[in-house]
Each structure stands twice: as C-alpha cells, then as structure tokens.
Amino acid sequence: MRKLSLSLAAALVTLTPVLVSAPSEAATMRTWERLAWCESTGRWHVNTGNGYYGGLQISPSTWRGHGGARFARLPHQATKREQVKVAERIKASQGWGAWPSCSRKIGVR
C-alpha cells in the first residue's frame, strides 16, 4: 500500500505542471464568443463581402492554412465549433495578434 501511495504521489508531482499550465494556453468558448461579438457582432455565419468570414472574421488563406478546408470551403460555412477549432490553431501560430483590435478590446493580449 505504501509503495502505491508513493507512486501516486510521484505521478501527481510529475503531472502538476501540465495541469496548472494547460488551462492558461486554451481560450474558453466564452472568450471566443466575446471575440466574435467584437469581430462580427457574434454572427458566426456572416459573409459581409469584406474578405473575412464567419464569427471570427478569418481570411480564406488563413482558414485553409490552418486546416479549415477540412470543415468547409470558407469559415462562415463552418459551424461555430469548427471555426473555434481552427481559431485555436491560428492563435497557436500567430497569437492573439491575429485579431489585434478586438483581442485588445476584450483584454486577451
């Protein structure tokens, strides 16, 4: 029993940095919704003709470059969850600077 407790304790110590740091890397759905409200007044299926599409106003080249074509040809044709999945990839490669004005406005820089 003591050996099992020591193994469990060692596992927890090893995993603690992962458990503590992971949430700070991923944005919550609420954060993405706030960003979409700023970018497109929360309209996930919007095509305004400005060259950016969907709730997070993603360009076609950025969409394709981050795997979005797997979901839909253009962002506004994808579901909200699919747009967020691609946005997480964009954020991982470009940071919040991919949405410079709105990320600053909602305080996620």
Automatic annotation (TrEMBL):
Q: Per UniProt, what is one Pfam family of this protein?
A: Transglycosylas
**One MF annotation (Gene Ontology) recorded for this entry:** hydrolase activity
Q: Which domain of life is it from?
A: Bacteria
Give the record's keywords alphabetically. Hydrolase, Signal
The UniProt record lists the Resuscitation-promoting factor core lysozyme-like domain at: 27-102
Looking up Gene3D superfamilies in the UniProt record yields: 1.10.530.10
> Which family is this protein grouped under?
Belongs to the transglycosylase family. Rpf subfamily.
- Which protein are we looking at? Transglycosylase-like domain-containing protein
**Could you tell me which species this protein originates from?**
Nocardioides scoriae
- Write the lineage as a comma-separated list: Bacteria, Bacillati, Actinomycetota, Actinomycetes, Propionibacteriales
